[in-house]
Design brief:
The structure is a homotetramer of 133-residue chains. Chain A is α+β, with helices and mostly antiparallel strands. The first copy, chain A, contains three helices and five strands, in the order E-H-H-E-E-E-E-H. Chain A has a single domain, classed as Thiol Ester Dehydrase, Chain A. Strand 2 of chain B pairs antiparallel with strand 2 (58-65) of chain C.
Chain lengths: 133, 133, 133, 133
């Protein structure tokens, strides 16, 4: 079963740069929002996970930029849980421009689950169960 | 005695926006660097203060923008400790463009000293002493 | 007649800092979103204005921080057009935490209308009319 | 001949997040500074290139995060021009923590040279010559 989620966002002036397009690093912030909302859609509130002493930092990011996003563009960010490993998770993202659904950016992030001590730990069963349902 | 400090910085692409000038909020990040380096110049490492459970959050900021900064501009950020109260501190900042020393932005921040419990506490004597020397 | 508008936003990980609260400069980005959406609610699309060669840069910002915002908090940003002068506009903002409606931040921005040459110009009649209706 | 350049930077409060480490997207801003300064070291001022109507946007980024950077850490960012193609360039970056030279992050960006019309164009001979010298 594919776990996938979509959010909408709008480009702010703050997101853009002198080329009058969104600065490349800012797409990674939308990837973050995409992940957080995908998790929420499956009943997992990332903030609550952290309160349990479990963190899911990024260990890898990759993004390809196909076309620019500009100030005030409405965007759809699609996020997919591509893999849950023993201690890791991989999310894939696409950012589309609305209403044309032109694909602007495609990327992925890899995360590792760590405890308060910063050491990798298995993905907790409860999270695994929620993401598989 | 006036406690004053100057740092140099350069405008990055990330700092700019669609108007091809620095986005207004990003001047506040330079104010931060100015404060941190002013404190360091007086022997106060802000990171070490936090390790003691003492925090100095911002409770007020004000800035006037007189002329734009653009990508790759070299800037001088001047920071002045304008006041130390019982539990608060006020820093004043000016941002100049180099080499002309055109004044681009002028502002200030007010801070309150708080403990780990988030409650205001007197400015520690050691900090007060270093800032008065 | 008071021109006022409210938007909702959610604190992202990217907005926060080592104190585990929203970094002070990031409230200014929400002020921007508040202004852009207030204008849109009155039929003014800021992007279209710029295509006409009219810009409305910030010349002053002020903000008071009353309580921290944290990751994943839902916020209400209220924006009010406080004044339209001959060549300037003043917006006032409040940021509230939901659902308690605790006031976290209060501030304002002052803007000047400029043409493509960067020189101040009167607020265009069409904009003035829409904001007064 | 390897074209390589190193810059120093310091982690600002603004760069960090609730995990008390640098937010993953902010490493990409250091990659930018690394590229801009590598070019400058070879006599190429990116701002001047843009004034000629030549732009070098990012079309791909990849980064691996090996260890966290924290507030006030001093970092060394090493940038290497890994390849110049007909219309593209590839830069590789490493971010090290000082003074230990612990490797924190490794990544690369791919860029395409475009004209004012946004269409790919060959890397100008003058740029190619400077980068090969």
């Amino acid at each position: 079963m594919v776990v996938e989620h979509e959010i909408l966002t709008r480009v702010r002036y703050a997101d853009t740069d002198t080329m009058r397009v969104v600065y490349y690093a800012n797409f990674l912030v939308w990837f973050e929002s995409g992940r957080v909302e995908l998790l929420r859609s499956k009943g997992i509130v990332y903030r609550d996970i952290e309160h349990l002493g479990i963190f899911i930092p990024v260990i890898e990011v990759q993004a390809n930029y196909l076309a620019p996003a500009r100030f005030d563009d409405e965007l759809l960010v699609r996020t997919r849980l591509a893999k849950i490993g023993k201690t890791s998770m991989r999310f894939e993202n696409e950012v589309y421009k609305l209403p044309s659904m032109e694909l602007l950016c495609r990327g992925h992030t890899v995360h590792v689950v760590v405890g308060s001590d910063g050491k990798p730990m298995p993905v907790p069963d409860e999270i695994r169960a929620k993401l598989s349902s």
